[in-house]
Description:
By secondary structure, the protein is mainly α.
Amino acid sequence: xxxxxxxxxxxxxxxxxxxxxxxxxxxxxxxxxxxxxxxxxxxxxxxxxxxxxxxxxxxxxxx
Length: 63
């Protein structure tokens, strides 16, 4: 029984010492940061594109 508990303890310690999961969390944080930045940039880009199309439309109407 004592040997079994010791094996479980060693397995838990090994799992806690592993850093594989930390890399995954870091990649997830970077991906979420990039998606937030892309969302913010798309709002500004959409406004600029809308302004460009409105300028083209007003030029075509005036001609």
